[in-house]
Amino acid sequence: MVKDAENLLHLIDDKVRKLSMCSMDERIDSLRQDQWYNLDFAAKLVAMLQELMANNRRNIRTACRRVIAPSGMAKSFILRQFEKQHPPQSSKLQNRIVYPVVMLEIPSDPNVKSLMERILTVTNLPVPRESRSHLFDHVIKMLKHMQVELIILDEFQRIHWASDKVGHLVCEAARAIAGELHIPVVVAGTNQMTRFFLSDEQLSSRFHPFEIAPWTADQAFLKAVSTILSYMPLRDPPADDIFTAEAVPKLLTSFGDRTDDIISVLKAHVIACLEEGEERLTLDRILSGHRA
């Protein structure tokens, strides 16, 4: 008997419940799309960004943050989702495009010039040929004009590829942007960027760390698995033995300790269930390694 969407209380919300009533192909197609999962660390990161914007009072020394996470923890996806929540807007009164949040990956050849050019590119502004020697001042002028409230510089660990001097200059440029505009700047990347900040007391005190650690075999990991599964459109709830203390280390071994891998493995198992006409995910299926 097919259940009613209203009775699928193991699923996160009405949107997922309605999706679970769709055909196998439609559900599988949805699983292959990017999806927001309201994991605790993701919610904390978003709340931190929102607080930075809310507390921005154009003070002389605006708070900045340094988001540190290993590759695969979904850091960039979360930051992009935050950017999408604050899209560019057209200001008819001022006849300009207003950018509340500007997010970009720093260039693969990190230096101050390439960073300034990337900022202009992502905000759809041309790079002026005649003022390359004053590029920083030009970027500051343009960002003021666009009323930017928060800047996110992702993949900041790429400064590790540059010389110590150039990497330090890029860090100083990020701090100078915050100082000139009196807005928060967030740098995000792996732990490889940390040495540039710890070697400079002013940088370290300005960019307070927000760390995202890999998963360990604990209740937080089990809660994350439960949350992710609540977004998976199966009509029957997952088997109870998935959520036992005995299962936790086995699940971590099966999934790995990175968010992207956990989501990918669970999606593969759920897709396999759907293709076989099953509506319940079991611990045996997960531990057997059988996937689509």
Brief descriptors of the model:
13 helices; single chain; 46% helix; 292 residues; five-stranded parallel β-sheet; alpha/beta; 2 domains; two-stranded antiparallel sheet; elongated; Rossmann fold
The fraction of residues in strands falls at 5-15%
Q: Major beta sheet, specifics? A: 5 strands, parallel
| Morphology call | elongated
Question: What portion of residues is helical?
Answer: 40-55%
Give the name of the CATH superfamily of the largest domain.
P-loop containing nucleotide triphosphate hydrolases
Question: Distance between termini?
Answer: 25 Å
| Total count of helical runs of at least 4 residues | 13
- The value of Rg in angstroms is 22 Å
Provide an overview of this structure.
This protein is an alpha/beta fold and 292 residues long. The chain has two domains: 5-33 and 217-288, no CATH class; 40-211, P-loop containing nucleotide triphosphate hydrolases (Rossmann fold), CATH 3.40.50. It has 13 helices and seven strands. It has helices at residues 14-20, 24-31, 40-54, 75-84, 112-122, 135-145, 164-181, 194-198, 201-206, 219-229, 247-255, 259-275, 283-288; strands at 64-68, 89-91, 96-98, 101-105, 150-154, 185-189, 207-211. Strand 2 (89-91) and strand 3 form a beta hairpin. Helix 2 (24-31) packs antiparallel against helix 12 (259-275), helix 3 crosses helix 4 (75-84) and helix 6 (135-145) runs parallel beside helix 7 (164-181). It is elongated, with a radius of gyration of 22 Å.
